[in-house]
Amino acid sequence: MPLQIVYDLEGLARHAKSDVCVFKNAIDSETCDRLSEALLKWQSTRQPNEGRGTNWWYNVDKDGSDFKSFMFWDVLDVAPWLRGDLLAVYKRLFEAHVSCGTLSVDDDFENLLGDRGAQPSLDPLAFYYPPGTGVFQRHAHVPNYQLTQVLVNITKRGRDYAGGETLIEEDDGSVVTLGECFDQGDMFSFPYRHFHSVNAVLPAGHSSIGRISVLMPFHPRSDTAIRY
After folding, report:
1. Which of 63, 80, 110, 175 is the most exposed place for a label (fewest CB within 10 A)?
2. Percent composition of the chain: helix, strand, coil (DSSP 3-state, to 5)
């Protein structure tokens, strides 16, 4: 199936289980810019793995991948200058999970943010791909707890970064490339079982900050179930 472009959560829900889909302008650009700045400020004040188990970041350097993973397991306790916009984006992702059928309308956002042991919970993340080094190699996820992945791009293509296309492999072997069609504030979804990767992120100019993606998968926090 060709890439589906939609403009609301209802459109996303129609395609999420079977197609690669981009929901345009899911988050406004002002929120994206503030959050990008706040996340980089937050990272700059902490060493890798400082505060591990609560709110921390670490370097992902495995099997050719190279990016920074920001983990917010206690997101309600982050500084107020970060918390507001970060929670707004996570709540938007929560709405997408409900629309796509991963969660129900009766599920409670704040309750699912807690560590529930063997039971699945929301896993608030942000991936930061610095220009010149950021890349995520081909991988897939075992869809035990969610059938679709949803993710928001909060940085602007052509200003903050170049390259960094997301490649998603469909069941028939064809590859959907999310490049120009996936810009700041856009959300994408795709079947969680599909192999996918992120091309090398490149500088777009002297002030490039790179690509930042915000996501919130649903699984026990001890079980990421990634396949390479």
Report:
1. 80
2. 20, 30, 45
